[in-house]
Design a protein that fits this description.
Strand content: 25-35%
Number of strands: 6
Helix content: under 10%
Largest sheet: 3 strands, antiparallel
Shape: globular
Radius of gyration: 12 Å
Number of helices: 0
Distance between the termini: 19 Å
């Protein structure tokens, strides 16, 4: 899902993380999305990531910089570091 503004949200937003620079990391209807412009456009934070099961939770313990890891918890109990 790219270039979809948050104003057009139609599905459940499960989690939102915001950093001091205004970046947003969103778990939206089971999909991870990143916005670097306050929600005007969204893209995959880690292109090519296809989880084996549903994403239940995420965290960005070191911030939303692309070089920093994301931790993703899946419904099968697996925790993935991206």
């Amino acid at each position: 899902m790219t270039d979809t503004g948050l104003r057009a949200a139609r599905w459940a937003i499960e989690q939102v993380h915001v950093d001091t620079s205004g970046k947003l990391l969103i778990l939206w209807d089971g999909e991870l999305l990143l916005s670097e412009n306050g929600g005007d456009s969204l893209q995959a934070p880690r292109p090519g990531f296809e989880p084996a099961s549903d994403i239940l939770i995420l965290t960005a313990p070191l911030g939303l910089d692309p070089a920093k890891p994301l931790l993703v918890g899946l419904s099968n109990g697996e925790i993935i570091k991206l």
